[in-house]
Amino acid sequence: MSKTTAGNYFEDFRLGQELVHATPRTITEGDVALYAGLYGSRFALTSGETFARGLGLERMPVDELLAFHVVFGKSVPDISLNAVANLGYAGGRFHRPVHVGDTLTATSTVIGLKPNSNGASGNVYVRTEGRNQDSEVVLDYVRWVMVRRRETVPADRLGETTIPDLPGAVPASELIAPWRVVGGYDTALAGSEFLWDDYEVGERIDHVDGVTIEESDHMLATRLYQNTAKVHFDQHAQASSKIGRRLIYGGHVISLARALTFNGLGNALSVAAINGGSHANPTFAGHTIYAWSEVLERIELPGRHNVGALRIRTVATKDHPCADVPLRGEDGRYLPHVVLDLDYTVLMPRR
Amino acid sequence: MSKTTAGNYFEDFRLGQELVHATPRTITEGDVALYAGLYGSRFALTSGETFARGLGLERMPVDELLAFHVVFGKSVPDISLNAVANLGYAGGRFHRPVHVGDTLTATSTVIGLKPNSNGASGNVYVRTEGRNQDSEVVLDYVRWVMVRRRETVPADRLGETTIPDLPGAVPASELIAPWRVVGGYDTALAGSEFLWDDYEVGERIDHVDGVTIEESDHMLATRLYQNTAKVHFDQHAQASSKIGRRLIYGGHVISLARALTFNGLGNALSVAAINGGSHANPTFAGHTIYAWSEVLERIELPGRHNVGALRIRTVATKDHPCADVPLRGEDGRYLPHVVLDLDYTVLMPRR
Amino acid sequence: MSKTTAGNYFEDFRLGQELVHATPRTITEGDVALYAGLYGSRFALTSGETFARGLGLERMPVDELLAFHVVFGKSVPDISLNAVANLGYAGGRFHRPVHVGDTLTATSTVIGLKPNSNGASGNVYVRTEGRNQDSEVVLDYVRWVMVRRRETVPADRLGETTIPDLPGAVPASELIAPWRVVGGYDTALAGSEFLWDDYEVGERIDHVDGVTIEESDHMLATRLYQNTAKVHFDQHAQASSKIGRRLIYGGHVISLARALTFNGLGNALSVAAINGGSHANPTFAGHTIYAWSEVLERIELPGRHNVGALRIRTVATKDHPCADVPLRGEDGRYLPHVVLDLDYTVLMPRR
């Protein structure tokens, strides 16, 4: 039975190792529609072909997060099949738009390794890159996961620790704004009258709406991304785990939260960067997701007078509306109903 | 937190007001497939490209009700986010087919206002229009909803009442039949041997089959239509409501009922008009939907000898098969298991 | 109410009878995406356009099993609406690839009839053929089902028995391999390093992973295939049946099992034949599906040096991981947790 992949364990990773991930995946109109049905996103740039053309694009781009999930999904069988926890993201950049018809592939490079002192696991840091059929990088990001060892080792055989310099927030000079505002910008069609200039650093927005997740929803999404992590799909096995439930793919919560932010950030047409993020607590079917956001930074883009960037923190919660902007308790730890703390950068038209 | 849309309240509407709705939405093959998966429709005109071409069309059109739901969905954030009830439809006309690749936008005009005497709400009547990327009207309809006031007003400050002349059934002269029967019509491929000539006014058809709705189904559909009404999505909030459950979008029931009518009305290839309709009782996940129909009118189309129209009443029920054609009780009110009473007009080949 | 189809009963079938099935169905990118979301298949040939072109194809083909389900679905209203049980498959051949844009139609020929001695039902054997818009056969297969009689007949009026010669495994000379390996074959992108030469007859593979089925999943799939069998959809009626539950379409389990086999048979890029199969026990929502496979035969294809075929038995189970390769009990009957025993032939690159 050796032809079955059991995934890599901590001892299988080496610093500098490059992993070519299976399977090439062509993005279609079908993926775009399923993404719409799964999250109900209303950002105009990825909803209406005519709107995208009005912003100087030849074709409507695919939602950045759909591309992100597809690339992420490819990395799962090689990187995180034996993960204990998905610890964080950093330095996620969207280099160029993905369009319907593009075929995405992914590779990862191991940039850090940190054995845990218990000898049973360790943290693996990778930079994952998604490319299109012309070998152009469409997105890349760093993530780190805690991965089990195949066999526990004694304290004197843990191996070297190399923690990479994690990138901070993606700087203005590296943000790509693939569209521009030509002539007027139709805020009525876009669904919000508030533009870049109207947001202030420190401003907080309760996105009000909530969406309940069902088992079918997150599994349909996660299979669409060809993400094979067992914990999302196998209730028979999960029943005898500590959790007892299927765990919802963190990216599903990210996309739900992003869709919820439309109410308050309706002109945040593109995601340009994922600066960092944590899945603070697990999400299960039956939970209702709410979100609030804080404007962390208002970024002028070099040479761009009608498009600006906002660095945003979006916090998602479960079964807890966000009027009280929940985040951490007095002990400094995430509150139990906080499920996501995402630091990312969006692009928005300026006045 | 003022950047969040809370939707319009009764006092925000003015007679003659025009509302431009967000977000432009391009209809794709993906939407068509999801619609197929959600309802299992088998009408040949919207299922097989070759069949559509055989009826003189260059391309297969998109199901009229998919286009209707997308246009309706756009109107929700502006018209019915604070609705207490969706009271009725009238004068729905399908002016021209929608095709894959079309981008739909929507606008509404307030044509009537009726304050309720309790001072807490009122009925808003709108005519909503969906247009394609060439600004051609593809469909329009009137609907009226009861909308909450932001603040209750005393009896002497209710404001004016204007009830519009509601259109009756769309007359033959306004029905558009975009396809024609050229040469023979293949009833075997279409799935029914019964043509327009075979139906009699007053005839009733029990459509026999039943379909159970799950939470995932209606939420996937309703998000696909970018319909943002909270009651469909937020179980956490609904749990503390009188209903205690997520309410299923009425249009989801309309599409399920239309798909069920294939068994008995298989050659009703297109919907040409929605003359009127009521969501008689709420539908929840777990309910099994059944339907029966009555032929209300057999309409000859001016100058069209091989296509006719049938005005149909389709009644849908929950957890109650329709052999007994249920509708109203002795008190004249809808029976508790009746969820839809729809008066619409379909097009069908003639002998 | 006579315009409603109640489906054919045993006494409606005649030997040699040809049935033209409704409804023509155009396969789109949307169907492909939904299929991906429903099963999470990762076989590279049907996932990445560039990968398909690398194998000498002009366009990426559609998964053979999606085409199979669509053709099968068409036959349901005419063949198995009154089926008691779906007894078996044989001689399923995939003659040519189906592509996005193809419109499929289906016909069946009655090739055998076997009345049951109880006078209440009988077995109907049909050969069903799916064709594309150019009338080219894309696939055909034999299946047999036990169908109820409209009215029970006494023992002396059962009618003739004709059992057809059921085809054995599709021979090498009839297997179509529409792609070829040109230059190198990228096993990293494909997701498995094991090629045809690496598999041995008798080898068994536990595919390890499990996927739990929800009601929404199988209904979405089964409606997508326009399969109208009531037992899959109508919980209200099923509640009063012996089973008490909605029964999951057997083809849904076949597709889930095929997707699971990726882990161990990752280069089995195409299904070339379905030699036989049984749905050993019913599957319900909530069940977790696992699978194991046995290599039955390693087949050289005439004149093809870089593509070979493997005849595979894949067994799927419910709520029972397959490390113990479960199949039959000591009494020779399928074990209660075995739900599928499928004998089929796949195509795989050779070294």
TrEMBL record, chains A, B, C:
InterPro entries: HotDog_dom_sf (IPR029069), MC_hydratase (IPR048274), MCH/BMMD (IPR052342), Thiol_ester_hydratase_Rv0216 (IPR016790). It holds the Pfam family MC_hydratase. It comes from the Bacteria. Coiled coil: none annotated. PANTHER family: BETA-METHYLMALYL-COA DEHYDRATASE, MONOAMINE OXIDASE-RELATED. This is MaoC family dehydratase. The lineage of its organism: Bacteria, Bacillati, Actinomycetota, Actinomycetes, Micrococcales.
